[in-house]
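Design request, tokens follow.
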């Protein structure tokens, strides 16, 4: 069945692309994804001819099949019938409704008749799904105190988060005292230390380990010493997270040979280690005598972090405490009692949270204000990314490299990209900035979008960028841009752009449009010229050593509706591959 679905989907793809283009002007509210699902199942269960539609097909697809395959019944209830109405109108008006079909009038009338039944079916399906996931939702609520997802909309609306460069972050990470303690513990463990089943270390070993960490031996009040040193086990677990300690077999553990070298020399190695231990933030959650109370407060550390982030990186401790006390009571039936137990044990339930976060270099507390450090901001951005939440996070302007600027600007609206470029330029001498941008663009000759972005930015600098353009003539991927801009600036003795340069620029443009989708790709081909012009271009462009040449020729052969162009593209592809081989 999977093969049949894939084959049918491939067969429908050109037709649905044409519908998308038609719908932009004639039915802009139509959901192409909903249309695609209906068209696919019509092809699979009702008609091998995708253009032949009978009134009975609508009932078979919408009422019999869709309730079995729809993933979002709410969206289908709102938009599927209007989308199908637009699709059928498109087939009729473009001559794609095959002979033997019911008339458009009959099809639309049938849609009207079954619309209420379809909406009812979708609403029933939505209710069934709600019932099915009730238990799972309840579990999510219990474990959701530290979940970032409920704050996704607020996080998306945050102003741009500016991150410090790796060199600064690595310097801060080298000072993280919890990593130092994890190193010291691992060094104390040494090689092939045997551990027990019920308690990893004997009482005598625990006393030694506490001494190595500079931690006091607690009064046990009759409890076992192993149960009275949660701080030791948190550092032990952190050492494992950092790969400072590594299990060897069932009952042996050893320190990694490189552990004693911390803090490492290379910034990348330091940051990799710090990020490997990032999820140790959960060890900051209060640990209480009652297990249920401990579970009720699980996620408290993450809950604090997301609220400080939403306050743009700094929030009053009293306000945080009040918000989190309320959140704990909301997320767990025992939350209020757990909070009271944490007050009794710690004085402030946030004390262990802040101690761990400060120890991991993520927060500072000053004048009852909790503030994310640059390292903390970096960490929270990673945690949000782990939760599939996108934040507008970019390097700080003063720390932004030319490649950072080009990469981020390519994804930004034009006005915002211009503002980013202007702010970046304020910190640089224009001639040097031009060189940095072009050097960054030359790092990867396969990245046409970055190259075009760099050429546009450097081009806006005018004559001051001439030396940078002249140097770029020696870089094959930039020579076409350099020659073109030098000619526009009227620079004497500059080599004029060649036909190969023009062809390279065309291939860059096609590379970018191909990444936007088939309609944009076909439109860019139309911009080049009519069919004879395209055929003539394909007869010569295969000679250009562009990194995306072969895949573009293959895409032209598949996407262009004219058979002449398709044949010319296949000929060019054959020549390009033969030349390459």
């Amino acid at each position: 069945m999977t093969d049949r679905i894939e084959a049918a989907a491939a067969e429908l793809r050109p037709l649905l692309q044409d519908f998308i283009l038609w719908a932009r002007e004639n039915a802009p509210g139509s959901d192409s994804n909903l249309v695609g699902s209906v068209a696919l199942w019509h092809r699979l269960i009702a008609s091998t001819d995708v253009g032949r539609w009978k009134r009975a097909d609508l009932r078979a697809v919408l009422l019999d099949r869709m309730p079995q395959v729809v993933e979002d019944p709410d969206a289908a209830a709102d938009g599927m019938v209007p989308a199908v109405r637009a699709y059928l109108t498109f087939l009729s008006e473009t001559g794609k409704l095959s002979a033997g079909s019911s008339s458009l009038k009959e099809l639309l009338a049938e849609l009207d008749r079954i619309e209420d039944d379809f909406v009812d079916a979708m609403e029933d399906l939505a209710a069934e799904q709600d019932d099915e996931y009730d238990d799972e939702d309840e579990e999510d609520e219990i474990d959701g105190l530290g979940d970032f997802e409920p704050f996704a909309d607020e996080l998306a609306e945050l102003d741009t988060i500016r991150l410090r460069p790796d060199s600064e972050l690595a310097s801060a990470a080298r000072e993280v005292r919890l990593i130092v303690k994890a190193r010291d513990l691992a060094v104390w463990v040494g090689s092939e230390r045997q551990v027990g089943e019920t308690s990893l270390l004997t009482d005598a070993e625990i006393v030694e380990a506490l001494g190595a960490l500079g931690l006091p031996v607690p009064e046990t009040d009759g409890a076992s010493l192993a149960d009275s040193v949660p701080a030791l086990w948190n550092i032990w677990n952190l050492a494992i997270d950092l790969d400072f300690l590594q299990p060897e077999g069932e009952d042996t553990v050893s320190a990694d040979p490189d552990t004693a070298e911390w803090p490492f020399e290379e910034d990348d190695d330091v940051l990799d280690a710090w990020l490997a231990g990032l999820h140790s933030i959960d060890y900051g959650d209060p640990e209480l005598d009652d297990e249920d109370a401990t579970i009720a407060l699980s996620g408290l550390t993450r809950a604090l972090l997301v609220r400080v982030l939403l306050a743009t990186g700094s929030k009053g401790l009293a306000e945080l405490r009040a918000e989190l006390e309320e959140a704990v009571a909301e997320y767990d039936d025992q939350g209020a009692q757990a909070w009271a137990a944490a007050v009794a044990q710690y004085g402030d339930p946030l004390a262990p949270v802040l101690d761990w976060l400060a120890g991991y270099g993520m927060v500072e507390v000053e004048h009852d204000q909790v503030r994310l450090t640059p390292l903390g901001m970096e960490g929270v951005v990673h945690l949000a990314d782990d939760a599939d939440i996108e934040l507008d996070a970019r390097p700080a302007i003063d720390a932004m490299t030319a490649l950072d600027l080009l990469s981020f600007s390519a994804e930004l609206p034009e006005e915002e990209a211009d503002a980013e470029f202007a702010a970046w330029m304020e910190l640089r001498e224009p001639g040097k900035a031009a060189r940095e941008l072009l050097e960054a663009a030359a790092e990867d000759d396969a990245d046409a979008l970055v190259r075009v972005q760099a050429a546009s930015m450097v081009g806006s600098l005018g004559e001051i960028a001439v030396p940078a353009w002249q140097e770029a003539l020696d870089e094959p991927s930039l020579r076409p841009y350099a020659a073109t801009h030098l000619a526009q600036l009227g620079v004497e003795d500059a080599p004029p752009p060649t036909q190969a340069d023009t062809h390279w620029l065309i291939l860059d443009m096609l590379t970018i449009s191909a990444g936007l989708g088939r309609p944009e790709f076909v439109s860019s081909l139309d911009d080049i010229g009519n069919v004879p012009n395209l055929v003539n271009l394909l007869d010569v462009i295969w000679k250009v050593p562009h990194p995306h040449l072969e895949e573009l020729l293959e895409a032209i052969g598949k996407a262009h509706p004219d058979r002449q162009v398709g044949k010319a593209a296949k000929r060019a592809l054959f020549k390009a591959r033969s030349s390459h081989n």
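Comment from the thread starter after seeing the answer: thanks! The first helix runs from residue 2 to 26.
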